[in-house]
Amino acid sequence: MASKRNKNEYKTISKKSRSLLKQSENCDLEYKESLNGLKPELLVAFANSEKGGSILIGVKEKSLSNGRQRGEIIGCKVRDKEKQAIFNIAESCIPHINIEVFIENTNATPFFRIEVPGGDKKPYSTSSGIYKIRWDGRNKAILPKDLLNMFMELESQRFFQRFKEATKDMEEEFLKTQNSIEQKLSEVKKAVSEEIEDFQDLLDDIDEKIEAMLSEIQESPIGLIEELFDLSSCGLDAIVSKGENIESWIASIEVKTDLLLNKFGIEDPHITRTRYYVKESAKHLLKMDPILNKDYYLENFTKCFGATEEQIGLWYDEVISELEKES
Q: What is the Cα–Cα distance from 249 to 192, expressed in whole angstroms?
């Protein structure tokens, strides 16, 4: 068992490193013979991956007689100067990458083990704007489309968390509003149902009277015909009146619902979420490629987010204004 001098320093080789040294380089592991081989792109690639990975500095990959590969310790300088250089590389990334650095095998041939976790602030890039991700044992460039999907997925999670926190104090009032709306809708449903029943009774009554008149029409054709027309006229007026009552009820509930929503100043959550996604995506892409014009965003964001060109244009102009203030 490896003895430890302090939390992150081992006199021999830790159990974790012994396991890593038996492997060839892969999605979770990279060997570097010296600190000069450690580049920001490697830290960014691990941080953008789901699980992160390990980097052993002062170790090279060698081939065995059976054709397999594993790590071989060749050692490197492990002074405070080199250790600080590693942290400086991590802090140069955007956003900063939190890493853990271990010094191992100090009693023999020392080397560094760097643990890079999968970051919770993806996507990460170098200070020069390079985005990469660990893929099949190598560092793969992230295409703009994949970058946007990654950004949208993470921002969606953050948005819902912030939205939940921001609306926590409104929850009780919202529930009251919801209950009030449901009660009003129930009343309207009941009233409409009653109106429909009355309307049906009216039609049944008219049918009965018409049948009775038709059976008597032979006895008094002229008088009964006049009476039939009078009754039909009255029936039609009643039908029209009932139809107007139903339309009035429906219009009334629509007005009441709008008034309730306006009273509490509740914006459609779909609009709130779409505005946030559009502005954050545009801001991110403008920093990557400032030469993209407004027409590009109007065409692609309208399809992507389902908003109107007028909305996209307005939110795009807000982003431009915010970026100008930041600069």
A: 7
| Helix (H) or strand (E) run with residue 56 in it | strand 53-57
Q: In what order do the strands lie in the sheet with 9-10?
A: 4-6, 9-10, 100-104, 111-116, 53-57, 29-32
Is the Cβ–Cβ distance between 56 and 37 less than 8 Å?
no
Cβ contact 83:73 at 8 Å: no
Choice among 11-25, 137-151, 157-171 with the minimum mean pLDDT? 157-171
Closest CA to 107 of 5, 245, 26, 213: 5
Q: Is the pLDDT of residue 189 over 80?
A: no
- For the packed helices 269-288 and 309-326, what is the interaxial angle rounded to 10 degrees? 50
Dihedral angle over CA of 201, 205, 210, 211, nearest 10:
100
In the structure encoding, which two tokens stand for residue 195, read together? 């109106």
Question: Which residues is 4 bridged to in the sheet?
Answer: 10
The answer regarding whether domain 4-142 maps to CATH 3.30.950.30 reads: yes
For the chain, the domains span 4-142, 171-263, 269-326
Question: Is 153:122 a contact under the CB 8 Å cutoff?
Answer: no
Angle at 122 between CA 150 and CA 130, to 5 degrees: 90
Q: Say which residue, 63 or 237, is predicted with more confidence.
A: 63
pTM: 0.48
